[in-house]
Specification:
The protein is α+β, with helices and mostly antiparallel strands. It has 6 helices and 12 strands. The strands form 3 sheets. The protein has a 5-stranded antiparallel β-sheet with strand order 10-1-2-11-12, covered by helices on one side. The protein has a 5-stranded antiparallel β-sheet with strand order 5-6-7-8-9, covered by helices on one side. It has a two-stranded antiparallel ribbon with strand order 3-4. A hairpin with a 6-residue loop joins strand 5 and strand 6. Helix 3 packs antiparallel against helix 4 (about 170-185). The longest helix is centred in the middle third of the chain and has 25 residues, at about 80-105. The termini are far apart.
């Protein structure tokens, strides 16, 4: 399992991913899930992966090979983010179809998902979620974030905190807290955490971060967040049981 998320708004894009994979409780390892295929000044392309590791590694390897071989269609010569999303979806289908019969024979889940975020010169920044079937959806102003992997624990803070006008630095903090909340509740998600912040129209990635196990900043934000959540909980007013209790007492006396 893994957890990756992308957030887009009027200021740019933030993409974050953990690095933990597991094939049972006795085999846990770390593999990078966030990849940068950017060409500074021309296009910024950031890809996150989740699902079957052999499938996602195969897709990433073929994307790289097509670039190295100067194939007629590759990440660096497609003219739009939409076309790039279709190309990645096509590659994913090809690799899944190639190995499908052997994996299905042993009941191995071979599906995988991708997040694609970035900007091609002449277009607005865009963020896509590409499904195992190769189709995809795009993030919008009304739904500015997309998630893959273990999504449920990190979603509440995103729902309650970010808007399309939230400053990009605040978006980055929210992304880290979303991943930390997931790590707290699910041991299959864990560091190193990779984070990228891209400012719209800059066409270059200037802000990257890797937080490894035991990183002081990761420990600091976890403690602060837990303290603030506890304080907010303690400040909540008590439930007003009084009316129900009084009614119950009156019913007993009447009986």
């Amino acid at each position: 399992m893994t957890y990756c998320l992308g957030i887009i708004n009027c200021f740019g894009i933030v993409i974050a991913a953990d690095s933990r994979t597991n094939a049972g409780v006795d085999y846990i390892s770390a593999y990078k899930k966030l990849f940068d295929f950017s060409v500074p000044g021309e296009r910024v392309l950031l890809i996150c992966t989740s699902g079957n590791l052999s499938m996602t590694q195969g897709v990433i390897a073929e994307l790289r090979r097509d670039i190295q071989n100067h194939e007629e269609v590759n990440l660096h010569n497609l003219s739009s983010m939409y076309d790039i999303a279709r190309y990645i979806g096509h590659k994913s289908r090809q690799i899944q179809d190639r190995d499908r019969q052997w994996l299905e024979r042993d009941n191995i889940d071979f599906q995988c998902n991708f997040l694609l975020g970035g900007q091609v010169k002449g277009e607005e920044p865009q963020l896509y979620l590409i499904y195992p079937q190769g189709n995809f959806i795009q993030a919008t102003k009304e739904t500015p974030f997309l998630q893959i992997g273990e999504t449920k624990y990190g979603k509440p803070i995103l729902d309650r905190t970010i808007t399309y006008d939230t400053p990009l630095e605040a978006i980055a903090k929210c992304a880290l807290l979303s991943i930390d909340s997931t790590m707290k509740s699910n041991i299959s998600v864990g560091p190193p955490i990779n984070l990228v912040m891209y400012k719209a129209d800059s066409l270059v990635v200037r802000h990257t971060l890797e937080l490894r196990l035991g990183d002081p900043y990761l420990a600091k934000i976890r403690k602060l967040w837990e303290d603030f959540v506890r304080q907010a909980f303690e400040a909540m007013p008590n439930i007003e049981w009084q009316r129900e209790t009084e009614a119950s007492v009156e019913d007993i006396l009447i009986d």
